[in-house]
């Protein structure tokens, strides 16, 4: 079976790797994905963007890429779209118009419940199988929508959970993100936090960054242990400071107390704050407040991201309450998603 895959994000490809393990050996991927999974038509590093402004600069490039994906459709059995709604939803429309009989599965859906709810009818009309990874997501769709909660992909990967927290914080981890813009904004603050706390510290850096990248983006890393394995590092740590993204939910499922810190470009934040009507930025906070009266972790955004605020939060943190709520969140998600999605693709 040949599947057209559109997985532009690093996190999407982590989940795609888990999914491929559940598929038969004769399954072939074509399209956009990590080079470890086959011959992608583009280097994923060329797709890294941060925010609305960066996206506008690359519009022509993405239009051309969509045309290449459409051309590949003539030889595939099914289409698998993962996340990245800005690219994947317009692509789905083009595919459905030109190849109406090709089955399209959308895995890790656009967060239309958070912004652009008008996308929901479009998704219902265009996509054959909506594979939701959020238990509450189906409530935003019509009763007849082809949507199924398939479980959460992180539970395919994160098998261990901190059942008991150490009495004292002896090691902290910093995750300033994977996009260059967010790293540059957070690192001076994270560096100051490390100095003030004076606790053994690790910093998680993407494997593909060159030494020159690291020097330019992170600055002086004296006092940090550089690591690449996020899950192992978080499991071995006692506390974390994390940029917004998939990493916050990873930390929640692992059970490590953490603080979210995020600084967007001013224009991006201005646009997003008026389009997205949510009380929280972190996905784990959004999910836990579906069944709980309080958030899982503190959030500091934009001008509130200061070393003083982060250090104060660290000392006031209720680690026991976090641990109790993190276990409840893991139970809410129930199970992993790879086997269910693999079944969708093969049947």
Give a description of the structure.
By secondary structure, this protein is α/β, with parallel strands linked by helices. It folds into two domains: 2-149, 3-Layer(aba) Sandwich (Rossmann fold), CATH 3.40.50.11930; 171-333, Glycogen Phosphorylase B (Rossmann fold), CATH 3.40.50.2000. The chain is 44% helix and 16% strand. It contains 15 helices and twelve strands. The strands form two sheets. Strands 2-1-3-4-5-6 form a six-stranded parallel sheet, with helices on both faces. Strands 9-8-7-10-11-12 form a six-stranded parallel sheet, with helices on both faces. Helix 1 packs across helix 15 (338-346), helix 3 (59-72) packs parallel to helix 4 (85-98) and helix 7 packs across helix 13 (307-316).
Give structural attributes:
Rossmann fold, 2 domains, six-stranded parallel beta sheet, 12 strands, 44% helix
Any idea what the CATH architecture of the largest domain is? 3-Layer(aba) Sandwich
CATH class label of the largest domain: Alpha Beta
What is the beta-strand fraction?
15-25%
| CATH superfamily grouping of the largest domain | Glycogen Phosphorylase B
Low-confidence stretches: none
Structural class: alpha/beta
Largest sheet: 6 strands, parallel
SSE series: EHEHHEHEHEEHEHEHEHEHEHHEHHH
The radius of gyration over CA amounts to: 20 Å
Per DSSP, the total helix count is 15
Q: Round the mean pLDDT to the nearest integer and report it.
A: 91
Gap between N and C termini, in Å? 11 Å
Tell the overall outline.
Answer: globular
Number of domains: 2
- CATH topology of the largest domain, by name, is Rossmann fold
Q: Helix proportion of residues, in percent?
A: 40-55%
């Amino acid at each position: 079976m040949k599947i057209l895959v559109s997985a532009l994000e690093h996190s999407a490809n982590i989940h795609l790797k888990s999914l491929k393990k559940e598929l038969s050996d004769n399954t072939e991927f074509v399209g956009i994905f990590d080079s470890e999974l086959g011959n992608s038509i583009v280097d994923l590093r060329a797709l890294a963007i941060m925010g609305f402004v960066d996206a506008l600069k690359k519009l022509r490039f993405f239009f051309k890429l969509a045309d290449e994906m459409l051309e590949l459709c003539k030889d595939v059995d099914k289409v698998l779209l993962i996340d990245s709604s800005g690219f994947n939803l317009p692509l789905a429309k083009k595919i459905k118009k030109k190849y109406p009989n090709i089955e399209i599965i959308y895995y890790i859906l656009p967060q239309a419940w958070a912004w652009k709810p008008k996308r929901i009818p479009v998704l219902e009309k265009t996509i054959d199988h909506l594979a939701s990874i959020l238990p509450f997501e189906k409530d935003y769709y019509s009763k007849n929508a082809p949507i199924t909660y398939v479980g959460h992909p992180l539970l395919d990967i994160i098998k261990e959970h901190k059942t008991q927290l150490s009495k004292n914080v002896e090691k902290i981890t910093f995750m300033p993100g994977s996009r260059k813009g967010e790293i540059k904004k957070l690192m001076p603050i994270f560096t100051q936090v490390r100095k003030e706390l004076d606790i053994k510290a690790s910093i998680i850096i993407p494997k593909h960054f060159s030494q020159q990248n690291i020097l330019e983006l992170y600055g002086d890393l004296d006092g940090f242990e550089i690591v690449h394995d996020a899950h192992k590092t978080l499991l071995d740590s006692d506390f974390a400071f994390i940029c917004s993204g998939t990493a916050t939910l990873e930390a929640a499922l692992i059970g490590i107390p953490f603080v979210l810190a995020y600084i967007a470009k001013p224009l991006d934040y201005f646009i997003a704050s008026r389009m997205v009507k949510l009380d929280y930025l972190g996905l784990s906070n959004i999910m836990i407040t579906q069944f709980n009266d309080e958030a899982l972790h503190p959030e500091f955004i934009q001008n509130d991201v200061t070393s003083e605020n982060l250090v104060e939060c660290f000392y006031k943190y209720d680690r026991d309450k976090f641990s109790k709520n993190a276990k409840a969140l893991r139970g809410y998600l129930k199970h992993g998603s790879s086997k269910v999605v693999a079944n969708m693709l093969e049947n």
